Amino acid sequence: MFKPISNQEETDSLILSGKAILLYFSTNECNVCKVLKPKVEELLSIDFPLIQPFFVDTEKFPRMAAHYRIFTVPTLIVFFQGKETIRKSRFIHLDELRLDLERPYTILFP
C-alpha cells in the first residue's frame, strides 16, 4: 500500500498535486516501524482511503529526511492540499492519529 519515494522532486510534485498525502519516514531496521506500519496501512485503508500513502527510507535518502526535518523514525507527515497539517513522531498512538485525521479529511472529502 505504501508507495516508495526516491527523490525530492517527486515528493514535491505529489504534495502539490495531491489532495491528501501521508509521508511515512522510516528505516528497514526500525523495530517500532515493523509493528506500526501495517497498523497505519489498515487505518488508512479502512477509515481514510483517499489519503495517498508514501514511504521514504531515511537511510537511503538522508537529504529528504533533512529537508523535512526528520530527527527520529518513524515520523508521519500528512499534507492536505499541499500544506503540512499533521506531524507525528516515534510513539504514535493510532487512536490519536485517527482523531487528528478525521476533521480535515471530512472537510476535504465530504
In total, the number of domains comes to 1
Supply the number of helical segments: 4
Strand order of the largest sheet: 1-3-2-4-5
Query: What general outline do the C-alpha atoms trace?
Result: globular
Radius of gyration: 13 Å
Arithmetic mean pLDDT: 95
Structural class: alpha/beta
The SSE string, one letter per element, is: EHEHEHEEH
* CATH C-level name: Alpha Beta
Q: Beta-sheet strand percentage?
A: 25-35%
Task: Classify the fold: give the CATH topology.
Answer: Glutaredoxin
Taking the alpha carbons of the first and last residues, their distance comes to: 23 Å
Number of strand segments: 5
The CATH superfamily title: Glutaredoxin
Strand count, sense and barrel status of the largest sheet are:
5 strands, mixed
- CATH architecture assignment name: 3-Layer(aba) Sandwich
Q: Catalogue the unreliable spans.
A: none
Helical fraction = 40-55%
Describe, in plain words, how this protein is organized in 3D.
The structure is a single chain. With 110 residues, the chain is an alpha/beta fold. It has one domain: Glutaredoxin (3-Layer(aba) Sandwich), CATH 3.40.30.10. Helices cover 44% and strands 25% of the residues. The chain is built from 4 helices and 5 strands, in the order E-H-E-H-E-H-E-E-H. It has a 5-stranded mixed β-sheet, sandwiched between helices. A hairpin with a 2-residue loop joins strand 4 and strand 5. The chain is globular and about 35 Å long. The two termini are 23 Å apart. The mean pLDDT is 95.
Layout of helices and strands, plus pairs?
Layout: E1 3-4, H1 8-17, E2 20-26, H2 31-47, E3 52-57, H3 62-67, E4 75-80, E5 83-89, H4 94-108
Parallel strand pairs: 1-3, 2-3
Antiparallel strand pairs: 2-4, 4-5
